[in-house]
Amino acid sequence: MPEQERSMVKGMSFGGVTEDANAAQVDVKDGKIVRIRPLHFDWRYKPEEFKPWKIEARGQVFEPTMRTLLPPFTLAYKNRVYSPNRTMYPLKRVDWDPNGERNPQNRGKSRYVRISWDEATDIVASEIRRIQKKYGPTAVLAQADGHGETKTVHAAHGCCRRLLRLMGGYTWQSRNPDSWEGWYWGAKHVWGCEPVGKQRNNTNTLPDIAEHAGMILFWGSDPETTTWGWGGQIVSRLCYWFTELGIKQIYVCPDLNYGAAVHADKWIPILPNTDAALQLAIAYLWITEGLYDKEYIKTHAVGFDKFEEYVLGKEDGIPKTPRWAAELCGVPSRIIKALAKEWASKTTSTAHGLGGPYIRGPYSHEPARLEVMLLAMQGLGKPGVHMHAVLEGAFFSSAVLKRRCLKHRPWGIIEPDISGAVRGYDNFAPMPKQVIPKCLVHEAILKGEFSIYGSGYQILPTEDQFKKYVYPVPGCSQVHMIWTDAPCLTTCWNDGNSHVKAYRHPSIEFMLAQHPWMENDCLFADIVLPSNTKYETEDIGEGTTGDQFESIFLENKCIEPIGESKSEYEIVCLIAEKLGMLEKYTQGKSVQEWIKYGFDGSGVPQAGLCDWEEFKEKQYYVVPTDPEWEKYPAGMYEFYKDPEKHPLSTPTGKLEFYSQRLAEHFPDDNERPPVPHWIPYGESHQESLQLPRANNYPLLCQSNHPRWRVHANLDDVTWFKEIPTCKVRGPDGYLYEPLWLNPADAAERGIKHGDVVKIYNERGGVLCGAYLTERVMPGVAYVEHGARYDPIVPGELDRGGAINTITPYNWSSKNAVGMVVSGFLVEVERVNLDELRQQYPGAFNRPYDWASGLRFDRVLTND
Question: In this structure, are residues 256 and 776 in contact, taking their beta carbons and an 8 Å threshold?
């Protein structure tokens, strides 16, 4: 008898931590996923039970819908579950022998053979014991963080850390503030706003902007793209509502991004990584024409006189005029003047969904600081003047703060907190003795040492930036084993080609990867263990990041595991068992008991809202809206009204145009001086059109959050491949990553739409498909990050479109260890595919799926 359809609930954001969103109903029949559709909040509850909120402004009303606003990522995810690139069983690299030759130089080239789970876990347990005995516990590097499926008990990232902690420790790859680099290393020195440096208190900024703002500046922000992976499409609805309210929306970015294409009243194209010049010119006009709030600056800020001296040219003899800026940033001086005057004449907020490339380029801490200072000059915190975070919802905050301080919409009477059930990544776990910032992994392995200031760990306060970190720590070993459950450094972090070299370094004796798909860094592992997707497990989730209501959901298993895959938690349990650590690792609890434990500590039963039996029956619970949400002051209004009573977390409690801390700790740092400067190049970076290097690489590469992926996730969804901006099918049938190029730049190079091209610099080359469009300004080559790595020559030439393989090696600046993945010099040229095929027949004849791309069997031996 055919099975009747069953509906299960799954959260489908890609935060990779506990806080989830995009709750979906998954329909299953005969053991297969039939469809994924929005969860209707009123499926099993009446609206009056959860009391939907509404925002009123200017005679109009904004209300939530009665279903989750799922992005295409969620709706199409069954493509990903059934991808032909799923790793089906454990693998061992053919020329890696744990008892003989290890051949690290062949990682990325070698093929794999199938082994059993028993053999695989025996090898892993043996290698951990051997390496720890020979070198000590810090010889194992845990790469255990990142974005991916949001799971709790079966956490996508970090399950190995708990086991290694029980075994005496490990070296930790600390998670840098990858979406907040400029804010973290720059803006925190102006206004505090711990931990990541964007405006922390977003309480009621949305209704306040709706009522009071005349203009919103989306600076390097795309609310129609970045938000999809974390909070669905509510932000899209909000942007349309802003238009209905008559609020002008201005986009400043090199590309007419997807948000700008549908919402912008004005698009201001600007060359990548030149925003600081534009910002300084705006400040110059405001200062010289008296268009800023002088009284506010007197009472709410310190160091403005030093900033003014630099802007007016008294420090260096160069007034930062609109004409000066126009030559540097590509924005005509008349537009700069118009923008400055419009901003000064209208109540204006800026808006960001995370940071984007604007905040991930060389010296990105400078434009980040300057944006905050410009907001300050117009009375930051007064009605309608905010840095509005359209996305961060629940990141980096306690359960109490999450209820309102980081919400872009009204919040619930409680915030469900299931962190007690988390078996993986934990922001607040104790920091191990030895730390390697994620963007310095290549440095640590290739050079064997480093000495830096600041761990770069994204939740630490500003004081950490003045703390010295060394590798190796005295008494600790260098790294000789890598255990990764986040295998995407090659395609998502800085200078992926150097990471390729690091993975192949002879000091790395063993590399273990666990992942559902055979992609990216998995190609360099000695043992690959197949993990599964959340559809193949039972778990518990909380809808707290970006949905329209707070919720909690029971995530029942939808389908049986694909192939021999197991969850990340189950994999580590198997390894723990071989090490004699299973009971300690699981704390004697089953998966079902951890799920119940998470619910029991969530705050939902404590508040008398829903008991366990009701939760099991209905599968979800929607938290009622806080009836008093409107009474709380908006954003930084209290600071605006009384900076003495409500100080910032800076040393002075005020906005610091001059950072005394930077002056004292780094007196000779001309790459991050006490007053923000225009820094086109310096000791750490030479990625400027002003340098002779630009003669060879005359284009600036812009790399956004991808439209059709979440970082390195979802590059195999067949439904998206039919969309022209997703992939460009080459004459050889291969699906190439699009490279947007202005027709004028393409004509100079003899490039036509659809040509296969190479984007390159001295760090390597990447093949892409030419996509000619006026949506990107001249002088810019645009490639989104996160495409799957498909090396033709590992460490030199990639076919998959992994643009991060050629991003800069160095970090933000010499004393700021942030990633740099946009705003760097490149050249683009048309390639001859026939010649490449003849030169590299192996790379061009691997098994390939013409609909979804890479296939699992391409890495297997032919035996």
Answer: yes
